[in-house]
Amino acid sequence: MQTERVTFLTTRDHKAALDAYAASNGQSVGHVLREASSQYIGQPTAEEEAELAVLVQQANEAIPKMRASLDSMIETMDRTHRKVDAFLREAGVRK
User: Which end of the chain has less neighbouring CB within 10 Å, N or C?
Assistant: First the structure.
């Protein structure tokens, strides 16, 4: 990955806050700023990508169960329709 240098000016207090935040999270100020700017411009962070991967896995696991449930419901509805239709034919309501 080729990198570029970005420099910005801030207040002494803001720089101290950045230093403290980075240190408390075991990260460099550069890393904190890269993560913050990535979130700001809409790039997913590694944490967001990991969360999305978990959601995709859960959806992939759930879909076969959902399909089976829908298939079962369709079969139940078809059986019910056949019974109602037979009942109505026997009663002379339906031809």
Answer: N
Q: Which of 77, 94, 76 is nearest to 85 (CA)?
A: 94
Q: Give the closest residue to 18 by CA, choosing from 37, 4, 5.
A: 37
Distance CA 6, CA 38 (A): 14
Contact (Cβ atoms closer than 8 angstroms) between residue 18 and residue 36: no
Task: Please say whether the dihedral angle defined by the alpha carbons of residues 41, 43, 47 and 51, taken in this order, is positive or negative.
Answer: positive
64-74: per-residue pLDDT in tens? 999 999 999 99
pLDDT tens figures, 48-62: 899 999 999 999 999
Backbone angles phi, psi at 41, to 5 degrees: -95, 5
* DSSP-derived secondary structure letter, 45: P
